[in-house]
Amino acid sequence: MAAMADIRNIVILTGAGVSAESGIDTFRGGGGLWEKHRVEDVATPEAFARDPDLVLRFYDMRRAAIQEKEPNRAHAALARLDAEWPGDLLIVTQNVDDLHERAGARRVLHMHGTHLNAWCTACDARSRWTGPLIDRPPCPACGARALRPDVVWFGEMPYEMERIYGALQAADLFVSIGTSGAVYPAAGFVREARELGTQTLELNLERSQGSAWFDETRLGPAGELVPAWVDEMLG
Ligand code: BV8
């Protein structure tokens, strides 16, 4: 790890592993989310066009389940770091849950969207949404019955990529927490960071597809590794 004095700007990438101890299924773990539903069946625009009810029911189930979960010690530690870190800090999350925010983090970017928004395919408005979409409720903005989850599916462009690459350019430290490194462009961020000469750290339950690219990998549950790392950073 670079000396603390050299680290001013931090980019943190989180994945499903940071929410696992809150009881939210990861995507690829044993009995993981996608094992119950084939990826191509639910998380693609084609699937939505082919079988909108299946996709809407899948997201209605997850939206309801996520609202019963609570942030865990990893989310709380990251919120503390966000509140106390004097330099730039950005939590880029692949997760569509709102547990980072509910733990108190503010500098959060949902690159794959969020389960608490509905996106109107008629007027493009995004509205906060906590209920189901299966009954085709009217868009709060335009009334059209054309709402979809505001979630980035495979083949769709993740949100705010310019802002993410800008933050990576300025970062002194890139930390990846709870992600398998299976999905791009997020899985490529560690390589961008290395090419920029940025210090890289991985905190994960097991080695990931990207582990070879990190200066340091610590293995264990996020609920233990993240609070310990935040204590290190805040001295
Ligand atoms: C795009 C939202 C381009 C939906 C998600 C071939 C090669 C390379 C790339 C591609 C390819 N073919 C297609 C692509 C592109 C594709 C892709 O990468 N596919 C993969 C499968 C090969 N990517 C895309 O399509 C992306 N878009 O490329 O657009 C483009 C260009 C121009 C113009 C238009 C478009 C969009 C990808 C976004 C898909 N949406 N989520 C939803 O949530 O339903 S992806 C979904 O999986 C998640 O959001 C997350 O991002 C992703 C990865 O999951 P993880 O978060 O990593 O979770 P996972 O279960 O995999 O791993 C959990 C990890 O945690 C494990 O390592 C585990 O050990 C660890 N863990 C478990 N418990 C704990 C723990 N760690 C700590 N503590 C614990 N307790």
What features would you describe in this structure?
The radius of gyration is 18 Å and the shape is elongated. The chain has 235 residues and is α/β, with parallel strands linked by helices. It has a 6-stranded parallel sheet, sandwiched between helices. The protein has helices at residues 33-36, 39-42, 45-50, 52-66, 73-84, 99-102, 161-170, 189-195, 222-234; strands at 10-14, 89-93, 108-110, 113-120, 126-128, 147-151, 173-177, 199-204, 216-219. The chain is built from 9 helices and 9 strands. Ligand BV8 is lined by residues 15-17, 20-21, 26-29, 32, 43, 94, 96, 112, 151-158, 178-180, 182-186, 204-206, 208, 221-222.
Q: Short summary of the structure?
A:
The chain is built from 9 helices and 9 strands.
Helix percentage range: 25-40%
List how many beta strands DSSP finds: 9
Q: How would a textbook summarize the main sheet?
A: 6 strands, parallel
User: What are the bound molecules?
Assistant: ligand BV8
Structural class: alpha/beta
Order of helices and strands, N to C? EHHHHHEHEEEEHEHEEH
Calculate Rg over CA atoms.
18 Å
Oligomerization: single chain
Query: How far apart lie the N and C ends?
Result: 14 Å
How would you write the strand order of the largest sheet?
Answer: 3-2-1-7-8-9
| Strand portion | 15-25%
Provide a count of the helices: 9
Average pLDDT rating = 94
Which residue ranges are poorly predicted, with pLDDT under 50 across at least 5 consecutive positions? none
- Give the overall shape, derived from the CA principal axes: elongated
Characteristic key phrases:
235 residues; alpha/beta; six-stranded parallel β-sheet; three-stranded antiparallel β-sheet; 9 helices; 9 strands; 32% helix; 19% strand; binds ligand BV8
